[in-house]
Structures are given as structure tokens and as C-alpha cells.
Amino acid sequence: MERNSVTFEPSGSPPLTQKPRTARELALALALKACLLTALYLLFFGPAHRPPTSPAATAAALIGPGVHEDQR
Asked: What is the rounded CA–CA span in Å between residue 67 and residue 54?
């Protein structure tokens, strides 16, 4: 009885020469994503968009405007 040898050749996988290109594209995509997330943070949540607060304003917001240290 003769055995036929069957070789497996994946049809959808890229050749080995494209691996560095894929890694480079992945690194580029991650770097671009990090840059865009940083830009969004600075545009919408950065220090320029935070109102200045003082300890007195924070106490007034939490406790109420009627309580002062000199009134105790």
C-alpha cells in the first residue's frame, strides 16, 4: 500500500518576509494612538480646563457658605 504525502500550505498566512513590516505597522499604530490620546487629554481634561480652587472655596462648597472660622 502506498502512502501519499500531504503537505500543508496555509493559504492565508503572510510570508515570513512580512513579519518585520507587520511589527513596524503595529508599533506605528500604537504610537499614533498614544499621541492622539495625549492630545485629547490635553484638549479636554488638561490643567488649562480646571478652574482654580482655594481651600476656602472648597470648604464653602462642601460645608456651606455660612461657616467661617471667626464665627465659631
From this structure: 16
Cβ atoms of 41 and 34 within 8 Å: the answer is no
Rounded Cα gap, residues 54 and 62, in angstroms: 12
Tell me the CA end-to-end span of the chain in Å, nearest whole number: 105
Q: 14-30, pLDDT tens digit by residue?
A: 665 556 779 899 999 99
What is the rounded distance in angstroms from the CA atom of residue 25 to the CA atom of residue 21? 6
**C-alpha cell recorded at residue 34:** 498614544
14: Cβ–Cβ under 8 A, 6 or more apart, which residues?
22
